[in-house]
Specification:
It is a single chain. By secondary structure, the chain is of the alpha+beta class. The protein has 14 helices and 18 strands. It is globular and about 65 Å long. Bound molecules: zinc ion. Zinc ion (ZN) binds next to loops.
């Protein structure tokens, strides 16, 4: 019964807002549907759905897209199909990583309308200059995009920023980002008032958590209810989806798989400890064991593509040291993934970032040590796979997180809050 989901103290406004969210979320998750289809699947009356849809059409969030073909004899009259439109509702996702900055914009229906990524030495620039550089890219993006879409003034629903570190999301503070050299950095003050004024909301979150959201929503493993996304950058992070929901832990610091200790006497990690998984499988670790960079997290400067190009060129040329380094990296990828699978038992562990570019050389060894490291039969039903989202995964997830907030309360964005 719907009434069981509404708190007893809820007033008319709460119920209407909740129902608007139900309709929007249905169209977002399921795709185009008729009023009757929405009513049936959402457990609302046809009259209620018609009223809600009229309101959402008025706000420019939903549109009629034509009449669906009848599904077959006896299925009733085909209904007018409704779909999310919201081309004027824009969400910005952005990322500061060790060696690049990224900005991406999607509209309410999750269509990508802008993307920009640049090599950037965030370690050398420091926190304030890195945040200002990202703010500059966001400003360029806002200036480049039209101010109206389909005759409606654009609405910048928010800016979501992803950072490779532990983030106190409630206060917008990066508590600790070892590979950036950040400690207790409040992000908002350095972004500047101009950006603050031009966007409805600004959030800061962990890059792996945001990338996991992207993988779960739009990646090749979309909808997989138990999923772990592993970022492949200089740093290694983990984003967890459990039962279809992000699993963040008591203080939001969960998923730091890159710093699980594999060997207490192992190589030094960017966090200062020894033998973390990241010290074996991070991008700079690979460059070091392949003879392409100094050991430790502060390896070669340059974009991830520049660094990976060195490795791929060596592998394609049959360079023995490079191939041995890739096989060794693959072995450690599998060992760490097996540890994750033993604790989480996910349906899939998705390797993102730079792992995709070197997949053909690391996966054979990774599969072998992964299977060998698991106790449960049939690899605990867990697949080890690579992501198709590339280096934009975290920015994409940050933008989706912003869209989620719009869908939860569209009126808050478009008009004064009815409460
Ligand atoms: Zn570490």
């Amino acid at each position: 019964m719907r009434s069981s989901t509404i708190p007893a103290r809820a007033g008319h406004t709460d119920i209407r807002r909740n129902n608007l969210e139900v309709v929007l979320r249905h169209l977002w998750a399921v795709g185009p549907d008729s009023r009757a289809g929405i009513a049936t699947r959402a457990g609302l009356t046809r009259a209620t759905v018609s009223r809600l849809v009229a309101e959402l059409i008025g706000l420019g969030l939903v549109g009629e897209t034509g009449v669906a073909a009848a599904a077959g004899r006896g299925q009733g009259r085909p209904g007018t199909q409704l779909a999310l439109t919201g081309r004027h509702i824009l969400a910005i996702g952005a990322e500061i990583n060790v060696d690049y900055l990224a900005v991406l914009v999607v509209d309410l229906a999750n269509r990508e309308i802008y993307q920009q990524r640049r090599g950037f030495d965030a370690q050398r620039a420091g926190a304030v200059q890195s945040i200002r550089a990202l703010a500059g890219m966001c400003g360029e993006c806002l200036n480049a995009l039209p101010v109206t879409f389909g005759g409606r003034d654009r609405v910048i629903a928010g800016l979501g920023i992803a950072v490779p570190g532990l983030v106190d999301e409630a206060h917008g503070i990066v508590s600790c980002a070892p590979n950036l050299g950040w400690d207790n950095v409040p992000v908002l003050p350095a972004l500047g008032e101009d950006l603050d004024r031009r966007t409805a909301a600004i959030t800061v979150g962990n890059d792996a958590n945001r990338a996991a959201i992207a993988e779960y929503r739009v990646g090749s493993h979309a909808g997989t209810p138990n999923l772990v996304y592993v970022t492949g950058e200089v740093g290694i992070g983990g984003g967890m989806i459990a039962g279809g929901k992000p699993l963040l832990g008591a203080r939001g610091y969960g998923g730091e798989v890159g710093h699980m200790t594999l060997d207490p006497d192992g190589p030094v990690c960017g966090c200062g400890r020894q033998g973390c998984w990241e010290a074996f499988v991070g991008l700079n670790a690979l460059l070091a064991i392949a003879g392409q960079g100094a050991p430790g997290s502060r390896g070669l400067r340059g974009s991830p593509e520049d660094k990976i190009a060195l490795i791929v060129a060596g592998a394609e040329a049959g360079d023995h040291r490079t191939l041995a380094a890739l096989a060794e990296l693959g072995r450690y990828v599998g060992i760490g993934a097996a540890n994750i699978a033993k604790i989480m038992n996910p349906d899939v562990i998705v390797l993102g970032g730079y792992f995709t570019a070197i997949a053909e050389w690391i996966l054979p060894a990774a599969y072998e040590s992964f299977r060998a490291g698991l106790l449960a039969p049939d690899s605990a039903g867990c697949e080890l796979a690579t992501s198709t989202l590339g280096f934009m995964a975290a920015a994409r997830g940050a933008a989706i997180d912003i869209l989620d907030r719009v869908i939860s309360n569209p009126h808050h964005l478009l008009t004064s809050d009815p409460q």
